[in-house]
Amino acid sequence: xxxxxxxxxxxxxxxxxxxxxxxxxxxxxxxxxxxxxx
Length: 38
Known about the structure:
Layout: H1 30-37
């Protein structure tokens, strides 16, 4: 009889976390946008 091939047991390792996406910065207040927009 053929020997049972040892199946590789995957270790329960956590998936690599993606690069930390920068949180959406709060939009500048209209008082700051007004001088920029002119």
